[in-house]
Amino acid sequence: MRNQMRIKLLLLLLINTGILHAQWYDPAKVGKKAGDIYGKAFEEAQDGKYTDAIQHINEALAIDPKLVDAWLSRAGIYANMKNYTQSVKDYETSLRLDSVYSNIFLLSYSVSLAGTGNFDAALNAVNRFLAIPKLNDKSKGAGAYRKRCYTFALDYARKHPAGNYIFAPQNMGDSINSLSLEYFPSLTIDGSRLIFTRRVNNDEDFYESRMTNGRWSNAQALKGRINTNLNEGAQNISQDGQWLIFTGCNYPEGQGSCDLYIAYQTKNGSWTEPQNLGGIVNTDYWESSPSLSPDKRDLYFASSFPEGYGGKDIFVTHRLPNGKWSRPENLGPQVNTSGDESCPFIHADNQTLFFNSNGHPGYGETDLFFSKKINDSTWGNPENLGYPINTIDDQGSLIITADGKTAIYASEGTDTRGGLDLYSFTLREDIRPAKTLWIRGKVFDKKTKLGLPSAVELADVKKRQVLSRVQTDEEGNYFITLPVGQDYAFNVNRKGYLFYSDNFLLPANTPDSVFTIDIPLQPIEAGAVIVLKNIFFDTKKTDLKPESLVELDKLVQLMNDNPKLRVQIAGYTDNVGKPADNLLLSNNRSKTVVAYLQQKGILLNRLAAKGFGAGKPVADNKTEAGRALNRRTELVVVSN
Fold first, then answer.
1. What CATH number matches the domain at 525-640, 3.40.50.1220, 3.30.1330.60, 3.30.200.20, 3.30.70.980?
2. pLDDT in the model for residue 22
3. 535: exposed, middle or buried (C-beta count within 10 Å: 0-12, 13-18, 19+)?
């Protein structure tokens, strides 16, 4: 339908501008044999039979090499086939043969030039088109739109020089791609499991391939009751590989045309029967393209719900403490426009959202963008991913690996196995999300060794902002992501227990690491001790550093939640310096912590401060690592 409309538009342009005047080429004087063959080719092109049409055009041109209409038609066919290089050659031939007759096709010529990435020449061509006298309003509008796109492309290139960057998508191979269509990739955070949609005979099913010894295994259909003969697709696997949220269309129990469903992986590796996310999330309209945040608290998706900014908008719903999902919130005018926004993908850093849009300035059609989270309700201005990731054609969805370097998307590359295949490519450095590491482990009772369902929090110590908050499973297992380039306070909480405290100082150049931390929680009882690892002081000073406030506020919460709790704040130093000075320093630091708690309303009779200097070391003072462990602040339970 789109191809027929494009051909009709070219004919309208030709007629409405009154271009059929003095030029040497006259369609009425085309020889009958060449004209008949060309006419047949024209009908085939209208029916979308491009290969047949090109063959007949070639035959007509062999008879009459100056048949300008044949060159123009073949140029248009090649453009529809995305063969922009050949399209440009044919347009240029027609313009050389008769520039007066062909100049109304300067707009189409400019589009094909832009399709090859030659935006300078495209801008020149569209300016020549707009200079044609007596253009109708529709032609002027189409030309002005393309001019804005080419100007944007040139401005973007000036602001984002490619340098040594090479865009070289790689087909992901026969283990994943087949003669059928593959699209909508989804990846676990460790990069070991790839889930995607495959369409076989108009039936969409989910397949999985696993990375083993650096190679992808042969993709297999997901086990369980998740694949059906109904229309399911556009899936997203959670970063820990335990949940799969997907789009199901025209299901009997559906709320609207397409709804969001969730399935859970069982211990034997199969998937449970999908459950509809319910009427709070799904509506009578279209919901699709889910993307789950790494902490599984936020679910982003696209919807045609009419109370938005355009045809399709991106929304987010939050998982509540009771496991239900909140009423979806529109991401607002920073992200959504009067056009369509879809295919959201929240990166493992939980801060960078990728999506596609035809409403933000771009190259034409639908482009890919990203936006950075400012806070829980605000997003930064979207940034276009640039050419050649974005082109003049529609771009679908893409995902980014946890290290921020590699993107995976569906494309019809020159080496496709059959239609859409999955490809990977390296992202330019300036559009990469933060490299993200992760922690996994188990929370358990220090005495009984039994797993404890608990809350796990990760906070930016400088911004005092909670970045992730996850709930362990019933056995105490947890998983949480760590974007590099920030310093984190890591806390684990459960009622009736002292919280666990740790910190991660992760500069941008942090090497790849996987943290496995099993966490023993101590019941609140006399004699229990925890190290407050996020209490910070400058060297030889007693003033609390601002980065300490996250931990201190956690301590205030502990005292408020346990009103009978009495504690001692104990300070320690390493053995560098005079013992008397160390004793005084540790004592004063303990008093500083107590003073902060008093300021927050904790009664002094529940608090005690004591410094021990270099006494009671927990590590060897002969190394800097050991001395760092000895410089600490502890909380000791006096009574509860």
1. 3.30.1330.60
2. 53
3. buried
